[in-house]
Structures are given as C-alpha cells and as structure tokens.
Task: structure prediction
Amino acid sequence: QVQLVESGGGLVQAEGSLRLSCAASERTFRTTRMAWFRQAPGKDREFVAARSWTSHITFYADSMKARSTISGDNAKNTVYLQMNSLKPGATAIYYCAAATNYCWSVHDCAREENYDLWGQGTQVTVSS
Result:
C-alpha cells in the first residue's frame, strides 16, 4: 500500500524558513494531485496548497499564497512546501495528502473528502 511520509518540520524562529517534503512510497498512476494541509492547536485542519502531478498547476489558500510555494519532483514521487517569513501563527501539524480525482478551483482542491491518502504529519513550530 502506498504511504506518504512527511519530513522537514521542526522549530524555527519567526521570519525564518522551512521546506517540508512529502515522499510517496511508490507512484500510482491513479494519483493526480498532491496537497498540503495544516492543523493548528485547537483548530480545524485547513488547506494550504495543492499541485497537479501532470500539469503542475498549483492552487493556494489565499492566506498562504504570499509566503508558500508548492513544488514537486515527479521522478522522486515527492512534493515540497517551501515556507518563508514564518509567523508564530503558522505553528501547526502539516499533513500531506494525495488524490485520484481532479479539482479545478481552490474551493474543490481544499475539500478534504477529495483526498484518498494522508500522511502522519510533521510538526512545525514557529517561535516569536
């Protein structure tokens, strides 16, 4: 069974940067999209960004667009999330997810029920 494994989280000072990685244990031809979500303490999980495997089209939550970049290496079955100028409010568990359907808007890409596989998450803590 395909697994998603996140890495790259940790403790960073405010205004610092982190790059998260999510590696799929194997590539399935049904996978169409990879995405990042996050869940801050006491809050619901929220969408961060998504990237199509084939077209490389990307989608971002408005709140994340200015400071985040999602990218990928299809040969390595890996998707990345580069985050810059981090604020303490970015403290959360960051989850990687994979989908086998298509989305054409941020609204659709942000829906958790559209994703079939989830990673265990990686903790990001931003200190002030």
Observations:
- The two ends are 40 Å apart (CA to CA).
- The longest helix spans residues 106-109.
- The first strand starts at residue 4 and ends at 7.
- The mean pLDDT is 94.
